[in-house]
């Protein structure tokens, strides 16, 4: 259903888009505003005078019913997507509305090469856990260009668009971006009065409500609030529930003037019953130790305890100030404080006991897990944007400095899984097993299982000081040269404690790491015509020890040992981009190769020195299409082929030479297409994911009672919408149209799976006022 929300757009003669991150904290209600620079590189717009510096872009109103945008929001990109030598997918608010998407994981299904993960053996992955091109990337999530920490599942009620960049792109936002990153763009106030609300219910007995209200205070100020509430069961699962609410208020001053101030915040709470998955037994590819071919369990089965819980809290407040010194000179400063807290008890499952000849007596071991983790981040960014000429060469320059302080603290608990031997006279006690085919969520356990803090706490902190500069040089109408670098100094401190479960002895670890990193990228773009480009680019990214969770290790051969060097990934990409059909449809194609070095560590037995020798290579191709084929027919589609191999590695195991990467399908594809005629609209979606291997060593067999991979699958979704009038619309989405049974995730041990959602329907009533 077309919406009246206004987003930001720039004209074609304008250089890049400026939706920068704001400065300093705020806390309150839910709503946020769209200052997403959606640059519309319209071909009919007049170009700037060739003798003068180009005027930096001004925002113009644009209806938010398009699925194609021309610019990303980050000020670190000086050119439209058409002329940016990098693979970037932008998923707009309109696509998410058509699909009925509510979470980041649902939004990421609109780009190939990204797969979801489940986690370690007895535990389930907390929050948004995913891989990009076979590399775990959940720590590379940003909001308005500022890193967002925390093991939380992100709702997108306050998101204007989702930007997915791929490749080794450390120059954009710093360390760790081996395969890419996700940037979420917040909704911000605009000079307009509009409101939207949606009430959604599905056949899984979930109810969700969202609202988006924007009020023009005067000619230069506006207020916007987004809010969300959701409560209900998870389709196809017993006991599992998702309950959350959020509010995002924002206010802006000085709109349409030289100095603009945005103050905005977001506050989300969740109180869920988490899902530990179900045993992998009986699913295609499962290897049973006694040679039997058992049936798989009922996919509704719940193996946790009735009082398992998952409570999360996420806050962030941002202040952004923009000032135009002239039409070609802009300065932006942004400050944010954010924090999140995950508090969870989950009963997971792992080992099977299938030796009894009667399958009704088979059992599965239970392990209760506890997660008490707090994250906080304080960031200040200052960015300068400048357009000028030196002779016949035009420059689009963006540069800046950043300070980032990130911290993660975890509390150690005992009494949830196996009761340690030192608490029970030297004898460990396990939780009672569950009946494999008929688990009981109301099982009892012995008194020693009462959880308590055991002192095995950890705290990690990283402080980063960075400076960066990028310049795009234009040589006439056909050639562009883009180059830039980011220099950063970081200091990581880690304190951790471990408890010996036999003796109860507490061991302390106090480690630190400091280093300087230089990330860079360069690209050449040739434009044979105004609406097409051919490019080649080269970039790198660095991942130092302790990067993902600020945890350093005293083990000499652990990649997080502070004495080791950063892993370095380099990415080479050749591609082409075309804006066709009067710039309504964008087509892209790219070939890439990424090499990640310094992965593994061994000890030279002669010199006792430790050598980093591991190297993984990922190479492949990606195709993309987004936009409108006709005024009524739109689509977003992608296809990815990937070849992932450990070029040099260990003798055996996950990182053995010749091994592929876990959860990295050779092929994946997505399509979402919609046709609108008068008041009626119809949509169809297809998602294909090839086999995802868990056992990646070509010489290793699949162990008994495990799955070696996730079989490939194809899922179809559908949508039908009807606009009753200008203020009311109805939309029905049906997911997994053909009720395909498939596995969406598998744990690293191969014993526990998450089954893809069964067929269900969702009704949305959309209001516009």
Describe this structure in words.
The strands form eight sheets. This protein has a 22-stranded antiparallel beta barrel. The chain has a five-stranded mixed sheet with strand order 4-10-11-8-9. It is globular, with a radius of gyration of 26 Å. The longest helix has 7 residues, at 93-99. Mean pLDDT is 87; it is low at 1-53 and 57-63. A hairpin with a 5-residue loop joins strand 27 (506-526) and strand 28 (532-543). It has one domain (6-768): TonB-dependent receptor, beta-barrel domain (Maltoporin, Chain A, Beta Barrel). The chain has 769 residues and is mainly beta.
Give short descriptive properties of this protein.
globular, 3 helices, mainly beta, Maltoporin, Chain A, 5-stranded mixed sheet, 769 residues, 22-stranded antiparallel barrel
